[in-house]
């Protein structure tokens, strides 16, 4: 079992930045790929970014490329999502998820999910 807790969400103006954290406990975090997903009101959950076990590979959805950066610190059992140049359309609840299969965009590849953190970008 892996327990995931997201933090770092909040209210920010368009153009601003936030850093989300996903803290893990339980099994060794380095065994898991980690993804970030988001869900806006009335919309389907969508993939945002993912990072492989050793951080050797990262993957982003097109809408956040060049603005968001995913990273991890396996020694601290934390994955980060640095978000810059935020837009109102980035407003959503952001979830981190962990899994042992590398299929970054597919939510079914992730066995463990956090409770989410709200990000609100005002225009």
In quaternary terms, these chains amount to single chain
Structural class: mainly beta
Q: Which range best describes the helical content: under 10%, 10-25%, 25-40%, 40-55%, 55-70% or over 70%?
A: under 10%
Our measurement of the CA-to-CA distance between the termini, rounded to an integer number of angstroms, reads: 40 Å
Q: Please provide the count of β strands.
A: 11
Strand content: over 45%
Rounded to an integer, what's the Rg over CA atoms?
Answer: 13 Å
Q: What's this model, at a glance?
A:
By secondary structure, the protein is mostly beta strands. It has strands spanning 2-7, 10-13, 18-26, 33-39, 46-51, 58-60, 68-73, 78-83, 92-99, 112-113, 117-122.
């Amino acid at each position: 079992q892996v327990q995931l807790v997201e933090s770092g969400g909040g209210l920010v103006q368009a153009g601003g930045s936030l850093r989300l954290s996903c803290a893990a406990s339980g099994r060794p975090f380095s065994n898991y790929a980690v993804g970030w997903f988001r869900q806006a009101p009335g919309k389907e959950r969508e993939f945002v970014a993912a990072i492989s076990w050793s951080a050797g590979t990262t993957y982003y959805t097109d809408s956040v490329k060049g603005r968001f950066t995913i990273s991890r610190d396996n020694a601290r059992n934390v994955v980060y999502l640095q978000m810059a140049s935020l837009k109102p359309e980035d407003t959503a609840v952001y979830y981190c998820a962990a899994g042992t299969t590398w299929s970054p965009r597919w939510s079914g590849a992730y066995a463990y999910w956090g409770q989410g953190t709200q990000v609100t970008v005002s225009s």
